[in-house]
Amino acid sequence: MLFNSLEYLVFLPLVFVVYWFGLKKSLKGQNFFILLVSYVFYGWWDWRFLALIAFSTLVDYMVGLKIQNSDSKKNRKLLLGISLTVNLGLLGFFKYYNFFVDSWVEAFNAIGITMHTSTLQIILPVGISFYTFQTLSYTIDVYRKKLTATPDFINFAAYVAFFPQLVAGPIERASNLLPQFAEKRAFDEEKAISGINLIIWGLFQKVVIADSCAPYVNAIFDNYESMNSLSLLLGAFYFAFQIYGDFAGYSNIAIGSARLLGFDLMRNFNYPYFSRDIAEFWRRWHISLSTWFRDYLYIPLGGSRGSKANQLRNVLIIFIVSGFWHGANWTFIFWGALHSLFFIPVLLFNVNRKNLDQVATNRLLPNFKELGQMLFTFILVCFAWIFFRASSVSTAFAYIERIFTDMTFTLEYLNIERYNVEMIVILGILISIEWFNRTEEHPFQGRFKWVKLTAVILMLLTLGVYSNHNDFIYFQF
Asked: Which end of the chain is more exposed for a tag (fewer CB within 10 A), N or C?
């Protein structure tokens, strides 16, 4: 069930009414209802994968309790190993089996040894990368004694399958979300209004921005051999806003939907394209994933402690694993490796924790230095996005090569309903809205909130009808 579908437009209000008016006196009833509708929501794609999420939930529920009740360090490690093996094993099989087999065959073929093998036709379960990391955070935190295992199976199962963030995050920590299922929830009108505002802004980001960019991105990347340099540059530029609008839009709708039910989810995006260096970008982009890797992989590896060589090694590992998390393709690994290279200078010069405040604090506009830093960081990010979007690493290099060999900078009509100029204007409006509201969680806070809300709704109603209402990009991860 897509957030930008008529089904969800009916589903969410029905859930809201039953949850608050039919079950408001029963916490257990509310939690069981959330579990039930979450399984309906997930089963809307393919009911067969409900058994998979149920199995993963049951394993980690039992492992968590056994770790909690064990005083033996050896047994606790064994139990944690069971959780890691089951969860990462399922993720590896469904997401990476064919990738490893195909890569193995290609490697032998490259040295002259012909191998013939067939790969399985495996369907990737929607959201498996997200709920796998979510359940792992639970068992790891119980093992580290940072969290007490819950004896309530319904609460735990509802935490794992919570429908607003089940499919594409934010990847919630058990320490934040799970206790909220144990607390009595009362309807909060202010929180509900905030949730509705986030849903509207998320729909704007997805429908008006991401879905409007998608036809241009597809046309340019699918026909890059015949495109001029300016079109290829615009292709990377459009994709940067497509993936941002798509994923930030999903996250905002998820956070807003959760607030309607009285839950608080972590913020997943914080205006990342206003970052002044690559370290700041990763503090503002997909925050739930970057902090997950920081706490469960980077810090255990040694983090920023030790020699510079060890720090660089840890950065390389974290970014390559992050790239691989996104998908079973060498393009994602290369994308992650690129970001590790971008990160090296800020780490070597110890400026990775420099830009912790909001850019141009207490000022209307950035100064020339800040503007240059933001533009440079954005160019680096767009360059890496080419590898993320391309079908193969070789295609990405060919795309980049043509940028620097064609050297024709004229706007081309791409046989799409809207011209390039109109699309650039729409993106300019987005950038302006976000810039002047960059200190707020969403643009409908602060001054002139009703003016901004009305303008966005009008754009959503008028421009949204032209969009293709595509699936969310991160569903494939």
From this structure: N
Distance between CA atoms of residues 419 and 423, nearest Å: 7
Please state, in angstroms and rounded to a whole number, the distance separating the CA atoms of residues 449 and 148: 42
CB 297 within 8 A of CB 322: no
Instruction: Tell me which residue has tokens 């195909």.
Output: 102
Closest CA to 195 of 128, 255, 135: 255
Position of tokens 């209000």?
Answer: 13
| Nearest-angstrom CA–CA distance, 185 and 183 | 6
Q: Please answer whether residues 157 and 180 qualify as being in contact, where contact means their C-beta atoms are separated by less than 8 angstroms.
A: no
- Please report which residue ranges of 162-275 form alpha helices under DSSP H: 163-166, 174-182, 189-203, 211-222, 229-260
3-state SS, residue 472:
coil
Which residues does the annotation mark as catalytic?
326
Asked if 352 contacts 346 with a C-beta cutoff of 8 angstroms, the reply is yes
- The rounded distance, in Å, linking the Cα atoms of 369 and 366 is 8
Burial 339-375 (b: 16+ CB within 10 A, else e): bbebbeebbeeeebeebeeebbeeeeebeeebeebbe
Type of residue numbered 47: W
Interval 205-262: pLDDT, tens: 998 899 889 988 998 999 899 888 998 999 999 999 999 999 999 999 999 999 999 9
DSSP 50-115: HHHHHHHHHHHHHHHHHHHT---HHHHHHHHHHHHHHHHHHHHHHHHHHHHHHHHHHHHHHTT---
The answer to whether residues 15 and 92 touch, using CB atoms and an 8 Å cutoff, is no
CA dist 67 and 75 (Å) reads: 8
CB 163 within 8 A of CB 31: no
Lowest-pLDDT choice from 270-279, 293-302, 385-394? 293-302
pTM of the model: 0.90
Q: Cα–Cα distance between 36 and 14 in angstroms, integer?
A: 13
The token pair that represents 283 in the structure block: 């503090």
| Contact status, residue 337 vs residue 323, Cβ threshold 8 Å | yes
Distance between CA atoms of residues 319 and 322, nearest Å: 5
Encode pLDDT of 15-44 as tens digits. Answer: 999 999 989 888 999 999 999 999 999 888
Spatial distance between the Cα atoms of 328 and 21, rounded to a whole number of angstroms: 45
Burial of 395 (0-12, 13-18, 19+ CB in 10 A): middle
Residues near 114 by Cβ (< 8 Å), separated by ≥ 6? 108
